[in-house]
Design brief:
Length: 369
């Protein structure tokens, strides 16, 4: 078996539905995998089964820190780095010494997201625009020194790193076939919508609430799970006429997340028409369909290649009018029909966005390098 070191940008103990299924469950069927997590709370390197915990301050001398606990980087055939360009630069500098191949995993274009966030908050300036271009150019040069590039989608590579010319294998967000659940239709006539994840000016959640505020029917509720509680509360205050129909619910673990979704009927993934959102399928969509819950999502090229409106999802433009029209239609539907849409979407994702299948194809791609 080939040996892979996967260097993540995740904290120790963090739950993450990408790293877990793909790199801890399915890829180990084809290769030996060790996963590096960086910790702000450790002062020494430590091995825990297949996990290697490295103090954050040692990230630029990763292999020396590993050597201190008896792990030789020369034993790995591949080192894959997730998102961290400074660590990628370090790994590339060590590539010849240890004789491994290098891959770079881009899960989300954080540089572009920072600029878009500044624009949304009306704090961007020319210096940030120039800085973004310089960083993108520099990172493209780094990626071209790799043996493989692993973006979330081909669109992400084409939009943000069009000059990359190394082999590319896309690793999209997907569902774990061993985790999928059959959704039980809730008997209540009220349609409960779920919103899970980050809230910010960039995501323009107020427009979503504005759409809800225009609804003529009253048989709905909105349940929100987010770490951005204060922001959510401020948004809700802006739409006081529907505040009594909205709840913010604390969800800390994956099991609590599934319990939360079991009480809801339709998930929301409504995001503005920006490249940072249009070049990847929102991760929470995968959570919704894993739980058998259908989603109302933004209509963009990527979502439309997977889902068909009113067959296995609902798609609409990110405008108050368009969102309100779809919401009104959904709350007029029988619960059984809503559940059927969720079942159809889950079946579709098992066919085209399945971590088990992705792991096999990735192992085959790495073997060819």
């Amino acid at each position: 078996m080939k040996k892979i070191l996967y260097v993540t940008d995740r904290e120790e103990y963090s739950e993450h539905n990408f790293i877990g299924p793909l790199f801890e469950k399915y890829l180990p069927l084809y290769a030996h995998i060790d996963i590096v997590y960086f910790s702000d709370y450790k002062s020494y390197a430590e091995r825990k089964n297949k996990s290697i915990i490295i103090p954050t301050f040692d990230r630029k001398k990763l292999f020396a820190a590993m050597q201190e606990i008896g792990i030789d980087a020369a034993n790995y055939d591949f080192v894959l780095v997730r998102n961290m360009h400074d660590v990628l630069e370090y790994v590339l500098d060590q590539k010849q010494k240890y004789n491994f191949k290098v891959g770079f995993r881009l899960s989300f274009p954080k540089i572009a997201a920072s600029l878009e966030k500044a624009k949304a908050e009306k704090s961007s300036n020319l210096l940030q625009v120039v800085d973004n271009k310089i960083k993108t150019y520099t990172k493209s040069k780094l990626i071209n020194k790799c043996d493989i590039f692993l973006p979330t989608s081909k669109q992400m590579q084409e939009v943000y790193y069009p000059d990359v010319n190394v082999p590319i294998f896309t690793i999209p967000s997907a569902i774990d076939p061993q985790r999928v659940q059959k959704k039980e239709c809730n008997i209540s006539e009220k349609i409960i919508f779920a919103y899970i994840g980050t809230l910010s000016e960039l995501r323009d959640f107020k427009s979503v609430l504005a759409a809800f505020s225009t609804l003529t029917k009253d048989n709905w509720a909105l349940h929100i799970s987010t770490n951005d509680v204060t922001y959510a509360q401020d948004c809700i205050k802006s739409y006081g006429d529907i505040a009594d129909k909205i709840q913010i619910i604390s969800v800390k673990t994956k099991d609590e997340l599934f319990a939360f979704m079991a009480q809801c009927d339709v998930g929301l993934s409504l995001l503005p028409d920006l490249n940072i959102f249009n070049t990847s399928v929102h991760l929470k969509i995968m959570d919704y369909y894993t739980a058998g819950m259908p989603a109302l999502m933004s209509e963009n090229q990527l979502n439309s290649t997977i889902f068909e409106d009113e067959k296995n999802a609902w798609l609409c433009d990110f405008s108050v009018t368009s969102m309100a029209k779809k919401l009104e239609k959904i709350i007029s539907m029988p619960k059984q029909k809503i559940c059927e849409v969720g079942d159809a979407g889950q079946t579709r994702l098992l066919e085209v966005r399945n971590y088990e299948t992705i792991a096999k194809k990735l192992s085959e791609m790495l073997a060819k390098l």
